[in-house]
Amino acid sequence: MAKAKLSRLKEIEKDIYSLFAEVASFLGYSEIHGRIVAALLVKGGKASLQEIAKETGYSPSMISLSLDFLEFFEIIKKVKRAGDRKLYIELQGDLVEALRKVFVSRLERSLSNTLKKFESYRRELKGNKQEEALKILKAIEVLEEEIKRLKKFMALIK
To answer: What is the pTM of this model?
Structure first.
């Protein structure tokens, strides 16, 4: 009976890892980032690089590469302990705030790229009097206005 309960707990842990991987993927980032955060949460906010690798199924080198991203967004911090060669990782700060930063950053980059692309299309179509070109230019105008509205919304989220 105890073995069945332990097995069920492991299933739940793995499901949590998958759910966080899905969130990371939704934000346009690698699933590994979500799995690392989930593993840290399950481990009480602190774990060694090797423990995270074991829990997530990723190699220590893959985990190590992904930690820089999480550290940049202040989701985790890397910690060395005196007399210990292992690298430890700790959750840092407010997880929701960190996820908000990631979301805002990703969306701002996407909006900026879209506006640049629209500008290049506008230059390319400048002077073109064909009906289809005029329709495309009108669509670009409408979409630019929608993006401006979205940017106002983003300012509120910030």
So the answer is: 0.69
